[in-house]
Amino acid sequence: MWDGATEAELAEVWGVPRVEAFASIASTNDRALDLARRTGATPAVVVAEEQTAGRGRRGDSWRSDPGAGIWMSLLLADPPFPQLPLVVGVACAGAIERTMERAGRDAPAIRVKWPNDLLVDNRKLGGILCEAAGEGVVIGVGINVRAPEGGFRGELAESATALEVKGSRILYRKDMAATIIADILRALDTRDPFGGARAELARRDALTGRTVVTEQAGAGVARGIDADGALRLERADGGEVRVAGGSVRLTGVPGRG
Question: How far apart are CA 116 and CA 112, in angstroms?
C-alpha cells in the first residue's frame, strides 16, 4: 500500500505495467536500478513511504521521512540525455501546480534551479536524480509534500520547504504522483524533449539574472541555460563561460546548492 492504494491500483491509475510500493526502503533509485539489471528497462515505478538512505546528486543525502513526501523512481526504456533532469523538473513543476489547483489550493510558483532542483521562495521543494540503467534510465523524484514531524531542522530549517507549509488542506500524494508520471512520459514522448521544454524552462528558471556561485567556475551572474543544458555564467569582466556540471547556489541564500 502507498497513500491508501495497493500496487495494482496504483499501476492502473498511473498507467504503468509494474509498481512496487514499500513502507520503507533504502533508496527507490537503487531498487529501480536493481530491477533494470534483472528485467531490463521494462517500465516500472518504485515508490516508498520512507527512504532510509535516499540520495541526491553526487551522493548527497536526501531526507525522506515517513509519509512526508513523494519518494519515487521511474524505470523507463528511454535513453538518458544530459538535459533530462531539466526536462523532468519542468514537467514536475507544472504537474504539482495543477494538482494543487484541482485540490482547491493556491499553488506556489515553482521554479527550476539548474541543474536538478525545484524551488519555492528560494527554498528547496524537491530534487531530480537521473541515472543510466543499461539501455534505459531511472528517474528519481523527491518532493516534500509536508514538513517532517517537528519541522525541518538544522541546515534544512533555512533551506527546505514543503507544499503543505502553505496551508492545512490535505494533498493526496497518489494524485500528484499520477500527474507527475503522466507529464514526464508526455514530455519524453517527443522527438526533441529539451527543445519542447526550453520556453517553459526559461519562464521557471530560478537563476537567470541573479548572482550565483558555481562549483565549477566561481561567481558570476546567471544568464540562462543553453541548448546543451549548460548554465551560462557572466563573469565580472563581462566574459561568459559555460558551466556544465557541479553545484550552484544563489548568493545570500542558505543551503548547499
Answer: 7
Residues paired with 5 in a beta bridge: 2
Question: What single string gives the DSSP state of each residue in 53-111?
Answer: S-B-GGG-B--B-TTSEEEEEEEESSPP-TTHHHHHHHHHHHHHHHHHHHTT-PPP--E
The number of folded domains in the chain is: 2
**CA 255 – CA 248 distance, rounded (Å):** 10
Q: Is the dihedral of CA 156, 224, 82, 163 positive or negative?
A: positive
Give the CATH number for residue 228.
Answer: 2.30.30.100
Close Cβ partners of 203 (under 8 Å, ≥ 6 residues apart): none
In a shared domain, residues 154 and 90? yes
80 and 96 in a single domain? The answer is yes
Among the ranges given (26-30, 35-39, 40-44, 89-93), the one the predictor scored with the smallest mean pLDDT: 40-44
Q: Which of 150, 149, 155 is nearest to 123 (CA)?
A: 155
Give every CB contact of residue 226 below 8 A, 6+ residues apart in sequence. 232, 242
Residue 65 and residue 149 in contact, taking contact as beta carbons nearer than 8 Å: yes
At residue 45, what are phi and psi to the nearest 5 degrees? -130, 135
Domain around 233: 207-250
Neighbours of 65 (CB within 10 A): 18
pLDDT digits (tens, 9 = 90+) for 44-63: 999 999 999 998 776 677 78
Spatial separation of the C-alpha atoms in residues 48 and 154, rounded to whole Å? 24
> What is the Cα–Cα distance from 179 to 184, expressed in whole angstroms?
9
